[in-house]
């Protein structure tokens, strides 16, 4: 391993931690909760810089294609790898390459000489890759296996008013709304999305061998062949189904009113809801009772056409959601007003007008210029 890289690894605990995260994220067994923890760790600039360094080290080796030796070539090879190539040649072939770097090409048959160079290049690549592997937690060859399996996280962070479209390798299309933080990890047997905050619209390519799950706080949305939307704003979560079916599991609420009528998972520790097209599940921070409503499937993902739909939602949550689209900061001063229920359709182009009309009716709501 390169001594300079080793010294960096030993001297920089943040780089070591970034490397450990890098390897864990490429594994098959990482959970959505761990991905969320990684996102939290990555929020600090020094952590993000260290992680980007580890990624860049790894990418340096990704495009190199070294040929594996044939059995005959391995049989002719006498280099054991426990000493430098120059030292080995000086000991075994003192007449070669010590004072003339070209002479070994004249004394060794072409194919063998070509292989010696390929072997040296291969070991150089292996040393480079292993250096990264040591930096990334002393994983060695298992890290190479993980690399071949894929699993690198794809992170998206949009700004105010910004929308992006993410097309995954499997054909799944994710539309990412404004002010949203989202991470996608594709593996051989799973597809995991972590929605830290914001909103996303999912058109999922169904694959029963690779479950597609969206982790939102402590809740899990599992696709069963679906087009659906998930919003995670102001501590609340709204899951709306345009097509197909999804399953949502969520921890049992502290307030158990009406719990007897709620479906639970087989272990009895989670609430489990199956939602069909035209259904909407709301989990609000102000109310522990899950709310399932019937909606027009055409409403789902309306924000992609500039229409924001709110159905019996707390005004405070509505305002926070509108804030993701507005260059003007919107504030509700009174907590009591923030709890008022609102049903509305708001155009993203007329947010200021809607807030102004609301302010005229309800005191305590204001729009402040700038951010």
From TrEMBL:
A Pfam short name: FecR
Keyword Cytoplasm: no
Keyword vocabulary terms for this entry: Membrane, Transmembrane, Transmembrane helix
Parts forming coiled coils: none
UniProt keyword annotation of Membrane present: yes
Domain FecR N-terminal: 16-56
Membrane-spanning parts: 119-141
FecR protein domain span: 156-247
GO molecular function, one term: sigma factor antagonist activity
Name used for this protein in its record: Fe(2+)-dicitrate sensor, transmembrane component
Source organism (scientific name): mine drainage metagenome
């Amino acid at each position: 391993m390169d001594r300079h890289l080793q010294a960096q690894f030993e001297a920089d605990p943040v780089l070591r931690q970034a490397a450990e995260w890098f390897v864990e994220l490429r594994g098959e067994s990482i959970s959505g909760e761990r991905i969320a923890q990684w996102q939290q760790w990555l929020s600090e600039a020094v952590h993000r810089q260290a992680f980007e360094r580890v990624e860049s080290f790894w990418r340096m080796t990704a495009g190199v294609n070294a040929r594996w030796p044939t059995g005959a070539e391995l049989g002719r090879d006498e280099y054991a790898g426990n000493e430098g190539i120059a030292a080995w040649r000086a000991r075994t072939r003192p007449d070669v390459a010590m004072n003339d770097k070209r002479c070994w090409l004249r004394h060794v048959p072409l194919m063998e000489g070509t292989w010696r160079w390929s072997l040296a290049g291969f070991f150089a690549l292996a040393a480079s890759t292993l250096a990264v592997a040591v930096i990334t937690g002393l994983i060695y060859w298992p890290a190479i296996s993980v690399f071949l399996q894929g699993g690198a996280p794809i992170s998206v962070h949009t700004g105010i008013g910004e929308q992006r479209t993410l097309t995954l390798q499997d054909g799944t299309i994710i539309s990412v709304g404004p002010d949203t933080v989202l991470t996608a990890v594709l593996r051989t047997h799973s597809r995991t999305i972590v929605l830290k905050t914001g909103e996303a619209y999912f058109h999922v390519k169904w694959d029963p061998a690779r479950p597609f799950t969206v982790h939102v706080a402590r809740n899990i949305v599992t696709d069963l062949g679906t087009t659906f939307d998930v919003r995670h704003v102001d501590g609340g979560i709204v899951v709306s189904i345009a097509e197909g079916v999804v399953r949502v599991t969520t921890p049992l609420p502290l307030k158990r009113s009406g719990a007897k009528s709620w479906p639970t998972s087989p272990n009895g520790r989670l609430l489990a809801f199956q939602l069909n097209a035209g259904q909407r599940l709301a989990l609000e921070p102000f109310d522990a009772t899950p709310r399932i409503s019937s909606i027009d499937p055409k409403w789902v993902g309306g924000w992609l056409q500039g229409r924001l739909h709110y159905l019996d939602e707390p005004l405070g949550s509505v305002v926070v959601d509108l804030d993701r689209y507005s260059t003007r900061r919107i504030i509700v001063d009174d907590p009591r007003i923030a709890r008022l229920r609102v049903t509305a359709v708001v155009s993203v182009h007329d947010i200021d007008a809607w807030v102004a009309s609301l302010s005229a009716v309800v005191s305590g709501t204001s729009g402040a210029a700038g951010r």
